[in-house]
Specification:
Blueprint (H helix, E strand, L loop, with lengths): L1 E5 L2 E8 L6 E5 L10 H7 L4 E5 L18 H15 L4 E6 L1 H9 L3 H4 L2 E7 L4 H10 L2 H10 L1 H7 L3 H7 L2 H13 L12 H21 L10 E6 L7 H7 L6 E6 L5 H4 L1 H15 L6 H6 E2 L10 E5 L4 H12 L3 E6 L2 H15 L3 E5 L5 H14 L5 E4 L5 E2 L7 H29 L3 E6 L12 H21 L4 E8 L6 H4 L1 E2 L5 H11 L3 H14 L3 E4 L1 H12 L1 H8 L8
Parallel strand pairs: 3-4, 3-5, 5-6, 6-7, 7-8, 10-11, 10-13, 11-12, 13-15, 14-17, 15-16, 16-18
Antiparallel strand pairs: 1-2, 2-4, 8-9
Amino acid sequence: MRLIESGDVRLALFEEGDPGKPTILLVHGYPDTHRVWDEVAEILRDRFHVVRYDVRGAGRSTAPRDHHDYDFDHLAADLVAVLEAIGKPRVHLVGHDWGSLQCWEAVTRPRVRERVASFTSFGGPGLDQAAAFLRYGKRREVLGQLTRSWYIGAFQTPVLPELAWRTLMPKALARTMRAGEGIEPRPGHPADTLSRDGRNGLWLYRANMMNRMRVPGDPNVDVPVQLIETTGDVFVSPALLASVGQWVRRFWHRRIPAGHWAQRSHPEVVARMIAEFAGHLEGAPAARELRRARVAEGRKAFEDRLVVVTGAGSGIGRATARAFAAHGAEVVCADLDPATAARTADEIVKDFAGTAHAVEVDVSSAEQMETFAGNIAKNHGVPDIVVNNAGIAIAGGFLDHSLEDWRRTLDVNLWGVIHGCRLFAAQMVARGEGGHIVNIASMAAFTPSRPLPAYSASKAAVKMLSECLRADLAGQGIGVTAICPGFVSTAIARNATYRGAQAREAAVRGLALRGYPPERVAAHVLRAVHRNEAVVPVNLEAHVGYALSRLSPGAMRAFARLTGVIRR
């Protein structure tokens, strides 16, 4: 640590890592100190020169004599003093909470802007950008943000906030961290100077908030900005953050399923995002996750997404792989039949000038799926979307099904989905940036049928698995959807195995006459991912069946006595 002068205050400056490497300057928020960055700094210091400092009035830095000297002019002067002290021509700036607010302001000032190679913001937009949102945003969204910002008004009142920081607030903050974000206090955070820091930092709000909101400056920012949205942050609304990009010429918007102190709860993810952004601005190729975060006009809906589709050789799988490719995704086309997988991949390259990879895999094999998932991560990265589509059908009465029929059906239709969910969900969770899993079920999941006991049981299990998994993974930012098509014109009836008196040709004709192409199911898949829908019945009979299964289960059991044909 060393102390540097900035006006009448001394700032505590901390450096680690090789000064010859690119510099990352981490600026903390309120009521934190530089110690809130400990975990992130430890990860970054081997690759970067990492600099932190306690802002005026916090930690080991001194407080100004005049409370009004917490304004943006003095905060920007502090940042300039830090830049001059470390002597680097350009730095990658990172700000959290109030550190982010003051950095948004500082990067518009020439003495700072010319020395900032990039700016990563999370936990708070700039006041000029927020003022524009409050003026021009939708009324409902503005009211939502004002509700989240109630504490700002409370901080303007005299005496009471100072009293709270002397008595209740330190313990209340620790409880909030534990209960709200699962973060345990540790040495250095919250700091042992918390009570004093909380009282001093009130003047950050009092010296800046009301004046700047009444007379905002120019919200336009010229430096490259990476906005990290922590989706569980109770203080900043998604609508406010979404509005920021219009003021930034080069803008990347990324999301972490985390709370306000993501650098404490998800340090590996935060450090990786900072490193990827800084590394790219230093000349390294952009990681896929960074490419997909770039906000620019003309981008396709799923551009730079990696999508894995099983059973992609034909039917719904083929149509879904093509649909994602048409909207910009890179697609892994997996199938038990390598020739059909290769045909789908070749079509994507030819028809959409897209990127596709054909892979042979038996989804019922745990070993093959382990290898498959590992190779995808190694060769292409963690998938953003996984569509577990592969399935088979065996038609016949319950007593006509052999034990092997049951095993085969469940191995493919259920265990294939379990393998895909288990392996790829683990990758998505480890990456920490969310994702989406789509499981292709069937209307057979909620419409019992005499000739399809194994098939219906497997699809009902897939639907319930999807709903359980959706609840389990929601906190990780991973959506899960069960797609439940009705009668679709695919080859499933022709390829099915028939037991007893079941007639293949009748089933084939029935699906052909329905005339519902798999491309329409694929459109529902893309829409479900975009909207993060839970259960999606597809086509009229599926909607009717789903409604009746909930309104009158007895009627559905009565219908089950009638002979049916294969769904999907």
